UniProtKB/TrEMBL annotation:
Extent of the signal sequence: none
Protein name listed in UniProt: MFS transporter
InterPro entries registered for this protein in UniProt: MFS, MFS_dom, MFS_trans_sf
Stretches assigned to the Major facilitator superfamily (MFS) profile domain: 18-477
GO BP, sorted A to Z: response to antibiotic
Single Gene Ontology MF annotation: transmembrane transporter activity
CDD domains: MFS_MMR_MDR_like (cd17321)
Membrane topology value: Multi-pass membrane protein
Residues that span the membrane, as ranges: 16-40, 52-72, 84-103, 109-132, 144-164, 170-192, 204-223, 235-253, 274-296, 308-327, 339-359, 365-392, 413-435, 447-473
Amino acid sequence: MEETSGEPASAGRRRWWTLLAVSTAQLLVVLDGTIVNIALPSAQRALDMSDASRQWAITAYALAFGGLLLIGGRVSGALGHRRAFRVGLLGFAAASALGGAATSAELLFAARALQGVFAALLAPAGLSLLTITFTDPRERGRAFGVFAAVGAAGSALGLVAGGLLTEYASWRWCLYINVPLALLAVGGTVLVPGDRPVRDGGRLDVAGALLSAGGFAALVYAFNEAEPHGWASARVLALLVGGALVLAAFAAVEARAPHPLLPLRVLAHRARGAAFAAITLMFVAMFGFYLFMSYYTQTVLGYSPVEAGLTLIINAVAALVGSTFVAGKLHGRVPPAALIVPGLLAAAAGMFLLTWLTADSAHILPLYLAPALVLTGLGLGCVMPPTASLATADMRWHEIGAASAAYNAAQQLGAALGTALLNTVAASAAASYLARPGHPTPTAATVHGYTTALTVAFGILLGAACVVALLTLARRARGTGTPPREGTEHEHAEEAAPLT
């Protein structure tokens, strides 16, 4: 590694060790959002789960992770991001080992919830470490490109790994695999530069912590319940309304709190708000897309779980190319919007291509699936690095953890909403199509449901691109969008991190 700005080469190497450790942790967090999905039928049989309760193997992780992210961001700052990172890794490894050794459904659900608790500490700590470690614009672009590539490819890799481990080893290895990966990342933290705990963040905002956890958990649970019960069910409506009211109360408390858990200026900043909107809507569309690709390849094309997962490798490789060789190379050389808007449009084009699928389409893999997987992967890879960078750019030192947590929370809400919303759209469209005169086949109805949902996903991505473009045109913000150094305040950060 060459010396940068007169610093020793050893310091440069230590920064790249930080990237390796943080990327490994990011892989763990994202992987566990999908890896258990493929293994769930085998786990259900082994632990004698009921059909009604099996969803908790997925929901317990999502609720704990999404509900506690903002608290995790604050705890990360209070402990010091490197120390919090280590605690998160060790706790995640222990929870994974407990889940893999589970002898009952209840123990598995508890272990998955515990994984979510430590993931809520691990994710903001990792992004915060990356933000404060890489300050040179060129290195920062490369680092965030690699970090985003892992995040973008992690969900697809989770489906691949889940299929392989379940078929050739055991469903338990979908959890055990986290242990060596976490310990590897812990070993890497020995070379991670240290940081000091935040001492000026004030006392914990208890009211904000309780309201944020309750509000986010209610929304995530509502999205999960919408799939089996429908959006019009009393339970789902109560959770949605309750979650929205609790989050409104959270915003009111944060506006008046002397040391808020989430300073509202983090979201009010125009460029940062656009980044949060872009990543949330991207995840809404992409997680529905992953769900349909898994269902379509297995139920319509007859692929095995392993074959279906391997098909998604195309998407993972494209995301890797987009984040490292496009976004990573161009970071700091072009405005963030010049990456975010084309990325959203590329993903939208991939979704639109699949809306032309029918039950009778020929040459599906080369003409439809492969191009769509490439376009969506490239789009995701171009969107994640600039949005991750903008989420923490020009933040006060003691607020980096909160911004990192908010960015991860946006992804979690988007993923939960996308899976529930688009699956509901697909099911309703399929049922309506099947009721048409002419006796359509169940396969034709299923494909129609998928294409209808993907049309909605296309519209969401197109709308996201328009929102970011409008914010870009509305005001040219000033500043460089570089991360703060320790001890700086950036009182006027609302004018930094330009989109243009």
